[in-house]
Amino acid sequence: MRLSSILLALLAVAIVGCTKCGGQEEVMNQVQAEKSNILAEKTRTDSLYQQTLRQVDEMMSVLSALEAEEGIVKTLGPERGESSVDFRKRMEDIARKMNEKTAMIRKQAEEIGQLKNKLAATEKKLASVSAKADSLTQLIGEQQQEIIALRQQLTASRKMVDSLKTKLAEKDQIINSKVRELNSAYYVIGKRDDLMTKGIIDKQGQILFFGGRISVKQNFDTKDFTKIDISSLKELKIASAKERTSLVSNHDADTFELVPAGDAECLLKIKDEKAFWKNAKYLVVMTE
Predict the structure, then answer these.
(1) Are 167 and 271 within one domain?
(2) pTM for this model (two decimals)
(3) Closest CA to 202 of 210, 211, 192
(4) Within this chain, do residues 156 and 194 fall inside the same structural domain, yes or no?
(5) Are residues 108 and 244 in the same domain?
(6) Count of alpha carbons within 13 Å of 221, Cβ hemisphere only?
(7) Of 193, 204, 205, 277, nearest to 236 (Cα)?
(8) Given a cut of 80, is residue 277 above it in pLDDT?
(9) Share of the chain above pLDDT 90, in %
(10) Closest alpha carbon to 132 in 156, 153, 145, 151
């Protein structure tokens, strides 16, 4: 309301002041146009500011939910009486939901980037409007204080945009950190006895010294694992023949393949990194 009254006063003074010089209609149209431009740009800036804050809040809410689910997943194990097939299905369902939240985070990050570009464009328009307002100062000398007040509002809008940019930069750091975390995985390669000694794998269902199935333990020390970026790792060289190499961790068989790479080496080739790492972020390769 204050901004509208200032501009209306400017309009009235400009009309009266230019009656003597015969340019009343021209000045009236010019002031009216500047009034419309300023009001439109201020409204646009306010709207973009609120829209961006809402987008950031939504994204942080999804991040918090995802972090909570990840914390729960780290403690999950087969429930009493639950078969390995049912446990795997349950883990796949959790992984699917987490992937959906991850996709939502990435989409919201892109939307925030678009809003940042819109805010930058709006800031340029505000600067243009400010320059035009300066030219009106020459025509309406008696209302200089009102013009100054208007320019202060424009300056405040710029400061608001700068403040929002700072907040977005901070949120960008959080997003980038979370994306790096989501793209992080770990692997370890070792002989069966070494992996058992380190407490990474064990043998379940063994009767005396016979039978049993080797699997990854629920709780293990990660100090022997190597951290990788799943988006860039396409293949892994293993110092063991293909016939003597196997994956103990839970990865779908159709998402990778082991191919010979020499007399005593092979390559683990990942066909689809998202599907490969869906069930487990810790890859355990056993050589015999």
Answers:
(1) no
(2) 0.44
(3) 192
(4) no
(5) no
(6) 7
(7) 277
(8) yes
(9) 27
(10) 151
Q: Are residues 111 and 168 in the same domain?
A: yes
Domain boundary at 138, 166, 181, which? 181
Q: Report which DSSP code applies to 77.
A: -
- Residue 286's pLDDT is 96
pLDDT in tens, 63-99: 777 667 666 666 666 766 777 788 778 778 877 887 8
If phi > 0 it is left, if psi is from -120 to 50 it is alpha, else beta; for residue 256 that is: beta
Tokens of 132: 């035009």
Work out whether strand 282-287 and strand 184-191 pair parallel, antiparallel, or are unpaired.
parallel
For residue 168, what pLDDT is reported? 87
- DSSP code of residue 59: H
Q: What type of residue sits at position 24?
A: Q
Shared domain for 204 and 175, answered yes or no, is no
Asked if 113 and 231 sit in the same domain, the reply is: no
Determine the structural domain holding residue 215 and report its residue range: 185-287
Instruction: Calculate the alpha carbon distances from 8 to 43, 179, 196 in Å.
Output: 17, 51, 82
- Comparing 121-125, 161-165, 210-214, 244-248, which segment has the lowest mean pLDDT? 210-214
Taking the C-alpha atoms of residue 122 and residue 117, their distance in angstroms, rounded to an integer, is 9
The confidence band for 25, taking pLDDT boundaries of 50, 70 and 90, is low
Do both 157 and 213 map to the same domain?
Answer: no
Question: Which parts of the chain fold into alpha helices (H)?
Answer: 2-17, 24-74, 84-139, 144-182, 192-197, 273-276
DSSP-based three-state secondary structure for 81? coil
Total structural domains within the chain: 2
Query: How far is it, in rounded angstroms, from Cα 34 to Cα 129?
Result: 7
